[in-house]
């Protein structure tokens, strides 16, 4: 069984048990879970956390489906704003073992990547068709102060890094300095070439700034105008280390 699927139902129940509201975006047999954790104060602000686009990247979904481990990370945030989590975008990939072929974990049955065509009028995954209008609805209803997207990069095994979009320089520096203080610097990727970085620039060696593509993160940052941080945990290392990288990214957000 896919390890994320094995934790999905119990993880969502765990969030309900601590007072979160769990709902589903549904269409044509697909249902994408959404977890809403209200602030302890009256607030129109929202932090959006998303993961599970590519299901060989297990650290993000497994962190977000663990209410006991995740709740302490957002406790201070909830004193200022609401938190909304999409723990698993890709529902098709849940049917396949996470150690199997990328063909089934990153793409749908028509060969479309789950992190492409966001905000564009072209063929896209059904889950993207479902979630995209919901994001616009949330953007109209709340002041989404930041988006955090949790990934791993299998092309850079053992190394973690960031993509930072639509974030002013002083806040970028705070994010990067904070992350450096929280993780082993040996696992931080040191990029030298911008090849493959989709027009992004390199900052401090381990951050790609303002890349342009058709990703979810480009949609939230460039189209919706929301500051967005992508945490790329070090693929191939143990789960605890990968989840710790995401925790460090979350605690480094300048909220």
From TrEMBL:
SUPFAM superfamilies reported in the protein's UniProt record? Zn-dependent exopeptidases (SSF53187)
Return the protein name.
Peptidase M14 carboxypeptidase A domain-containing protein
